[in-house]
Amino acid sequence: MYGHPQLNDLNEARYVIFNKMTGSVNNINSLANVKRINCALLPPCTNTLQKKIQRVQYLRTLWHHADMRNPSDGIDPTSFGWKKESTEFAPEWFDGSSVPLALIQDNTPTDETQLDKSMDSDHDDLDEQWTKDKSESETDVE
């Protein structure tokens, strides 16, 4: 699976690939390694892959019924990995939290909104450091 024939679990293969990309996992701050890589290069996790397969099944079903007057009659897109947003359907990427609970430390907020704010503030700290480093290097040049 994903170049690892000895593995039978998709998430396990994803973890092996992640470790190859980052080196070893930092046990003190397990999310620190994620900031160093582009996680879009990882294959999808099981939950995301299941949603993608559901959306493909929906499209296949629509094509299968293409000869009918209303091919989508009786087919609920929300049962096939789509969610309704006002008047349109959007992909539902996965069920559950975007960060595995095993990665969240005891002092990290568990509420998803608080977690998002916490992660945003981490990026703000990096932005401030980058701005500070940049202004110092510009001063050195003058």
Notes on the structure:
It is a single chain. The chain is mainly α and 142 residues long. Strands 1-2 form a two-stranded antiparallel sheet. The chain folds into 3 domains: 1-43, no CATH class; 45-97; 109-142. It is elongated, with a radius of gyration of 21 Å. The protein has 3 helices and 2 strands; from the N terminus they run ααββα. It has helices at residues 10-22, 46-64, 112-141; strands at 82-85, 88-91. The longest helix has 30 residues, at 112-141. β1 and β2 form a beta hairpin.
Brief synopsis:
The chain has 142 residues and is mostly helical. 44% of the residues lie in helices and 6% in strands.
Order of helices and strands: HHEEH
Mind telling me the C-alpha Rg?
21 Å
Distance between the termini: 54 Å
Counted up, domains total 3
Query: What percent of residues adopt helix (DSSP H or I)?
Result: 40-55%
Query: In terms of per-residue confidence, which ranges show pLDDT below 50 for 5 or more consecutive residues?
Result: 137-142
Write down the overall geometry.
Answer: elongated
What is the percentage of strand-forming residues?
5-15%
